[in-house]
Each structure stands twice: as structure tokens, then as C-alpha cells.
Amino acid sequence: MNALPVSLLYTRDAALRQRIGGLLHNRANVRVVQDPPELELLLHQHHGMVVFMDLRATDCARLLPELMQRFPEVVLIALGGARSDPGLYAAATGVYAIESANPDRLRLQTLFDQAQSHLRLLQENRLLRENRAHPPVSAVPERAPFVPVFDRFVSAYKRFDNVGIMLESLVEGIAAYARVARVAVFSIMSPEVYRFRAGVKCLEETRALEFSQTHPFVQWLQLHAHSLSRAMLRHIEPVEERLLLEHMLDLTGAEAILPLFGRQRLVGWLCLGRMITGAPLERCDIEELIPLAEQVSVTIENALLHESLAEQKALAETLLQTIPVGIIATGPDGTIRWFNRGAETLLKMAAAELIGQPVERHSSFMGSLLKRCMAGAHPEGPVEWTDPATGRALGIQLRRLSQDGQCMGALALIQDLTEERIWREKQNNLERATFWNELASAISHEVRNPLVAISTLAQLLPERYNDQEFRTQFRDLTTQEVSRLNGMIDQLDQYANPPRLEFAFVDPGELLETARCQVRSGESGPVAIEVEAAPGLPPIRGDRNLLVDALVRLLQNALAAVEGRPGPRVTLRASSGEIGSGRPALVLEVLDNGPGIPAELRDKVFSPFCTTKARGVGLGLPVVRRTMIDHGGLIEISTGPPGTIIRLTLPAAAGEGGLA
């Protein structure tokens, strides 16, 4: 509900309803009424307001004099022809004004503002008369004080799982405890809105009410922070506040309103009607009800907190149940506390059978992993495991759950690697097919060139056989090209039939030094290879000879790239990093300050026979790439000009600490 005044429109004409509501949308909250009983009920509830009466509506002629007599603070505006018989009759009854049923916007808005001013004047005059009258207060028969029977509400507090039902039980207990005929509770529903939450014998209009944080009544409660009753209205100054509070009491059908404050904010208010005997609430009654209001405040604040936590819990559970990842969580004693639908699907087991059971009941391997995780000895990277029950290839990531340094359990995130493996195998097959197609094309090109040269000289040989210089040229060219073809075939044979991999733990420092020494023993030149190794490098598992060969090939390429360059520099660097989803890794980099890889070759560097060397075969980088694939690593190239960086990332050995 906003701060606009409520105005009624008595009509059954949909067009008139839309027209008046549109013209006054920024001045009033226009409510349409079609039946006389509903009209009278709303007038009793709102006390004073501006009412538009459609002269064509049913019973309008009968209602006009009755409303004028029974509701002196209602300002009536008749809608219709001023010179028509209904219009003349309305004028005779003393309505405030008669306006056309199709009015001008500015004219209608001006008329409404004047009617509101007239209504305000009527209300102020009434207040002045009441203040001057001050009739002597008749003796009020003594009533027994309220008995503090807060145990009436114990049953209500048991329904924290359903805040709506709890509040309904609470207001029923309040009505019985305070012996009042009507109770309503409003509470904050969001940071911006207060709404009706529960009530006893409340009007339907009251149940539909809502108030923003900026509503004048909400601001009044926040500013004054005390209870409100009809008996104290005459003590309220200024008049604007008195009219506002009187309007709120009428709107909610209340005799008194008690604010409900939480620890740091207004959480709502409690509306109380008259006593069930019809007697009004006295000051002493309200004083005795204040402890009740404080208890209701605490209850509502706790209920709102419970409601918020329940929503967050439901959202979290929904997310955990719907994500396509299996989740198993255990408590500190190793019993399964959470087993989501993803885990049920992957492991083919029902959560109802496992929750509360030791994790070993599902799998001794899974139980061992989770217990090692709780002990702090779990592998940092994902663990691959084939479930014997389903035959699925699964990837398991483990997390230790702790709070304030105390172990609260462990969490296993399970992913199905079966499709990933199938996709990876298809991708590898596609890459192999592409490679061999490129290789066949490259071999065809590389072999054809020397064969053409040899064939050309062979055709000229019979004619120029007696030419000693020609025979020497023929011999040298043939020997050179045949030697080149033999070297290419040897490298192709080595690439197509690599040696069997022999995995072992490899020390990164030793790997770097061995590669540097092999390059320096086979190369000559003034360029020194700088080695930079960070402390605490993680060891890796791999084939030491193949890894050294990969680094040697990269260093040879770097030395060739800086040959003849001013200030040549080649660096071999090692550091710690990550691969995949945060798994520890060793990062090896070969850096040079050469001219960089030509732009036209950057997309072909891993293709066979792609080389910038005059006599190169172009299998160096393809061999290095295959070595990385065999070791589960990555190769990345960043090139200028100036300079090139080739980065090799290899997964660290699982469960091993770093080496100094």
C-alpha cells in the first residue's frame, strides 16, 4: 500500500471505472464498489473519504441521502449530467459536487484536490469539537487483570516448520489471552514491504493490506516506537499525525496497535480490536499487553529468521540434488550424511539405504579415500576409479570439511568419466588420422623433390657421361639426397615406433641440468643457457629419457632461433603451477629472444615437416607434443616478435611433497 488516499467509486460501468482510475492514478487509490452492503462496510472501516457515485448505478438515488446522514465525513461527488433528473436530485441532497461522467483530466484532478481539502477540514472540525467537549469519564467497572498464561502459546511455537500455521496459532492464543474480539499481525516480508500475516476475525480488506518502508505510518512507528490506541488520539499533535493514526485504526479495524521491534529494526505490529464484551481497551490493558507484544516480537523475528534459513536450505538442497555431479558427504565419524541424486545415478544405489550408514558399506575404496581425506592425507588432485559394480570410469575429488580447525567430515565430488574417455578417444583418433594424412602429404612432397633432382641428372647422364664435372656433381647430389632420405626415414621410424615408456619419479632439478648438459655437449657457440628453478618444485612421474629429449629439442630450436642475433639469450625455467581443476603441476619453459615464429607458420608448428631450417625435417615439435600427451601434460607456445616461449605443464606426482 502506498501513501495515496483511498477513494471509492460506486459503479458497474467498466469504462467509467477505467476512466476515473486513470485520471486519478497519481492522486488516489481508487477502489471500485458495486453493491450497497460492500459500500457501507468500507465506509465504516475507512471513516472519512471522497466517494464518487455513478448516478446511473443501482440504488444510487436511495443511497445518497442515507450516506449524507450516516457518514458526515464522507465527501460525495456525483458523476452524471448536472441538469438531468438524477443530477438535480443529487444536488438537492447536498452532495459536494456534480461532475460529468466523462470529465476533463485537469478539472477532475482539481475537483478531487478540493474535495480532499474539504474532507480534511471536516475532520479537523470534528477533532476540535471532541477536544472542547471532554465529557466526564464514567466509572469503568474493574476488570480482572490479564493472567500471564504464556503457556497458551507453547503449541504454536512447535510449528516453526510452517511459519504461517505458527502465526495463526499465535494470534488465536493472543485473542484468548487478551480477551479481544479481533487480532491481526503484520510483519516484514522483504526489506521493503510489511504485509498482513495472520489474524482472527479480520476484514478481507485488512488481509489485503501491505505497506512500504516509506509509508507515513511505518515511519511514525519507527520514529515514536510506542503503542497507539483510540483513547490516546486526542493527545496526538499535530493534526496530520492524528488523522493518519485514526485512519490506520479504522483501516485495520483495531482499537490499539502495538509496535513489534526486533533487535535492530521494526519487524511488524500487532493490531487488537475491542474486548469481547464490546468495551474499549483502557490504558491499563495496553500496559499489561506490552510484555505480550515483546514476546510476539521475539517470536516473529525468530520465525522470520527460520523462514529465511528454511528458504536458503531448500534452495541449497535443490541445487545439490539437481547438479549432474555425484556428492557424498560424511560426518566426522565416517557415516554418510548426504547422498544426492547424482550419486544415486552414478553408483546405482539408493540414498535411503546409505544415509546414516558407514561409508565402507558402499565401497571400501571410497571409505578409504574419505577417511584419508578427514585425516588430511588425501591426494590434492582428482582420483580416477572404476566402480566394480557399474563398470563406470569415475573421477573423484575430495575435500576436507572443517570449522575452527576441527574436522567436520569429508566431501566427495564424483564425475562420470566414461563419456569423456570416449570423446577423448574419438578426438585422439581424429587427431591421429589428421596427422597421418598430413604426414603422407608431407612425405610425398619431401621425397618427390630429391627424386626429381636425381631423375633429372639420371636422364642427362648418358649424354654427359664423359663430363667428369657432371659425374662428380651427380655423385655428390645423389649421395646427399639419399642420405637426407635415410635420415628422414629414420626419424619417421622413431616417431612411428617410440620406445616403451618407463615411468619413474623424476627430480625436476636433475631433469633441467641433464637437458642443459646434453645440448652444450652437442652444440658449439657462445650462447649460454640460463637455468632458473624455483624452490620447492614438485616431483613428477614420467619417462626421464623422453622428457630430457623433449627439452633438448626445444633448447636446440631456441639456440637456432637466436643464432646471429645481437645479445642472444636462451633460458630454461622451472616453476610450480596447476593443471586441470587445480591439480598441482610442474611448469617447464624454454625462452629465447629470437625473431619469433613467422606468422604463416604459427598454425602449422605441430604439423610434420614444418620447419624454418634449411636441412630440418620438422618433427621436433610433433615429437615433443606426443611426449606431453603420453605424460598427461600440455604444451603451449607464445611467440613474438621478439622471442618465443614454449611452456610444458606436467602433473605433479600424486601424494608427493615438494623437493627443495
What does this structure look like?
With 660 residues, the chain is α+β, with helices and mostly antiparallel strands. It has five domains: 6-131, Response regulator (Rossmann fold), CATH 3.40.50; 150-309, GAF domain (Beta-Lactamase); 334-416, 2-Layer Sandwich (Beta-Lactamase); 418-497, Helix Hairpins (Orthogonal Bundle), CATH 1.10.287; 500-660, 2-Layer Sandwich (Heat Shock Protein 90). Helices cover 45% and strands 21% of the residues. It has a six-stranded antiparallel beta sheet with strand order 8-7-6-11-10-9. The protein has a five-stranded parallel beta sheet with strand order 2-1-3-4-5, with helices on both faces. α7 runs antiparallel to α11 (283-322). The longest helix has 43 residues, at 418-460. The chain is elongated, with a radius of gyration of 45 Å. The two termini are 70 Å apart.
